[in-house]
Amino acid sequence: MVCGIHKLTQRGCLAFIKKVVRESTKKALLNDGGGLYLRALMTGTASWVFRYETEGEPHEHGLGSFATFTLDEVREKARKCRQLLHEGLDPIAESQKARQTRHNATAAPGNSSRTFKYCAAKFIAFKEVGWRNDKHRRDWENSRGDADHVAEEVHHLLPTS
């Protein structure tokens, strides 16, 4: 038996998934070491998880699908998770912060969420590629103006948090 980390091979992972399917095991874990596991389901799907404990509580952080990420790629993700833990940070919380930051970067300028007006303008810009003449643009913008007015009226009726 191999000790430490980086115990798995691609061939071994595929054999493990086939075994789980063949034996109709509901789900099973295969340890690569250092908190990295391959979780296989009897449906034939598999995903990578990083398992760790903080304050005595077990946690599992999903690192992606076996079909999408290579063994080397998830080993690098697991290494980053171990670094975060060493720095006293929670890998799941850091992942959620990064996701929120990416969301905010794509939101309307000067606003933490996308407004109706911003989304409507983006939609019109996307759709106008297929329009044959300028009348279509005017029709869409006129209808958007009506929708903006309704959205502003409804906004005043909504409770504020």
Q: State the oligomer.
A: single chain
What are the secondary-structure elements, in order, as H or E? HEEEEHHHH
* Helical residue percent band: 40-55%
Q: Mean of the pLDDT scores?
A: 83
Number of helices: 5
**Which consecutive residue ranges, at least 5 long each, have pLDDT under 50?**
none
CATH superfamily of the largest domain: Integrase, DNA-binding domain
- The radius of gyration over CA amounts to 24 Å
What percent strand? 15-25%
What characteristic shape results from the CA principal axes?
Answer: elongated
CATH topological fold name of the largest domain: Double Stranded RNA Binding Domain
Assign the CATH class of the largest domain: Alpha Beta
* Count of domain modules: 2
Read across the widest sheet, the strand sequence of neighbours is 1-2-3-4
Structural class: alpha+beta
Task: Give the tally of β-strands.
Answer: 4
Describe this structure as you would to a colleague:
- Helices cover 50% and strands 19% of the residues.
- By secondary structure, it is an alpha+beta fold.
- It has two domains: 10-106, Integrase, DNA-binding domain (Double Stranded RNA Binding Domain, 2-Layer Sandwich), CATH 3.30.160.390; 116-156.
- A hairpin with a 2-residue loop joins strand 3 (46-54) and strand 4.
- The termini are far apart.
